[in-house]
């Protein structure tokens, strides 16, 4: 009899089809046709035979012949035969146990390609292929594995085995022995003759798989030990394993880790469930739904199903319901197939473990979920759990192993939004309000201790240090101020989220609130984070006042004025500084009086209240000399220098500036040196001494570069750009501001970024480049919104001018910031 390859080639040529045309007509791959015609494969699946029979329009007798040869019944007697699993009458059926593939499978193209590249084996001669797909519950591991397995049918004509090992509930995990018995029974073994010994049964399973091309899908494994005795031992067969736990201990396995879907993929999946027209009608609500679902495929499908069952509901209505975090998980399924049950099964796995570390990890979930913020660093988590850092790190890593957390960077971890919601449910059920507040207070206390430690290094002579109520240890000598500030830069968004959470909780009147605000003064001033300083001071000084903390109150009122100066609200700043001065005098506290006098002198001078300002500046200078406080003495000289400049007493001004700079140089503090040179140059710019401003600004820039202080470098460049713009050198001014923006952008300082962008707009209008200027001004408005109303208004007024492109030239004005 002819071989299968001969028959197929004969029938194809008779039909006038190329291999590609036949493949398209039969719904197969061109590679599959090529393999069959070359004789590389002689036992195609029955579904493949039927598709080819229909595509080739074979007669009944030809179809019978084709099927008979394909099933190996036409071979010579001496030719080795493979098992005949085609029908119940002829022997055991080919196992075809895969669940159906999801018709709305979305995304995961890179992960799918990775699986197929490892497991495609058209010749059946490659080594045993192993792929491990891991990720949190509901992330789509099984959906991806099943989808990939269906695409691999051509490589595994002897069948597919599927087994849910129940590693993470509901119920107990399937034992290895039970799993072996089920797989062997599917392969035709007598269940009564399966050895009880796991190793012996593993050998029998490998024997049954030997010489066969079968794909095994082991779903929901607990760990590597759960699947090792279930693996084939010889070429031809392959295995896909899915698990919520880590499978890195599985030798030779390609590791595929699944994260949440992208926003576009989530919306595409939602469209597949509820219909494209419904999603297209409410695109904004669909995006909100994708975000609230945490872009978790299981959650997207469940809420999509809920919408499908309610065709008259607008998507926005469901979004509104889901915005209530306390009810959110109820909307993602309430039975064992829902999101809550999926997460709970992972936590319960840890709770019932024999390992103490696992049980500690389970207890940690509700505690770690209490603080707001996107991330948890090890040091903060250790404060929450009241454990050493090394033990805390082990707990967090164990949660990562089970995909209950994500390790986003060294020492930094993150909950998925829905896992955090589950953890908060548990904390509400197991802890009272006082216990939850205590967790949050431990977090704030950690930040307070660190803030004071940073300030003791960045502002070693600061009188605020004497009023710290939270004990702290100095930073190690090897830790620089810059590296400590870098750490706070990375953590600052979390810190502010937790501060706002605290002032909305039972901690709203706790002394830790003003203590934290003052502790972070050094960092905020060092990084020019005026917006955050203002937020914290405004929330804190009422608490300090109500608690009878008079000195703290005075300092917080003083510090709340600094952001107002930086955002251009000078009248508000002056009122606060004069009020703070009254508070310091009433205590009395001479350190505070001296600082208030110098600060108020600077602001009042900017408001042209020069006589009053000189009196306060002189008072501050005298008090600082009496106290031996050279820091405030130097600042007082700078304030007086600015006032003399305004009066036109340039000799007196220059003498005061030099005295202030000399004190900074004597201290050896490059940051102070840079700041005082820049203050001198800026004061010159304000009074029109443009040429005189250039040298101190360049000296300040040089000192900032030596000190590697990017914030001060950016400030120096902005002042330098102002000098160029006032001279009419607009190209140089633009390039200099752009350089400043590149320095400031990574620091995340919105006020500085918005102000510098506004400066670009001002320079552009002055240069007559109205289109570019309008673009910069629009950007600055977006950045400054809710950050600086004063500068936002200035940007809007200038934008109107730019859009009208007035013929009368716009004259660049001196900058208003510092």
UniProtKB/TrEMBL annotation:
Entries under PROSITE patterns matching the protein: HTH_CROC1, TPR
The UniProt entry, under Pfam families, shows: HTH_31, NB-ARC, TPR_12
* TPR repeat extents: 634-667
| SUPFAM superfamilies, per the entry | lambda repressor-like DNA-binding domains, P-loop containing nucleoside triphosphate hydrolases, TPR-like
Query: Which residue ranges does the record annotate as region Disordered?
Result: 70-94
Alphabetically sorted, this entry's keywords are: TPR repeat
Enumerate the InterPro entries for this protein. Answer: Cro/C1-type_HTH, Lambda_DNA-bd_dom_sf, NB-ARC, P-loop_NTPase, TPR-like_helical_dom_sf, TPR_rpt
Annotated HTH cro/C1-type domain residues:
8-63
Query: Which PANTHER family does this entry report, sorted A to Z?
Result: HTH-TYPE TRANSCRIPTIONAL REGULATOR RV0890C-RELATED, REGULATOR-RELATED
Name-wise, this protein is Tetratricopeptide repeat protein
Q: Native species of this protein?
A: Kribbella speibonae
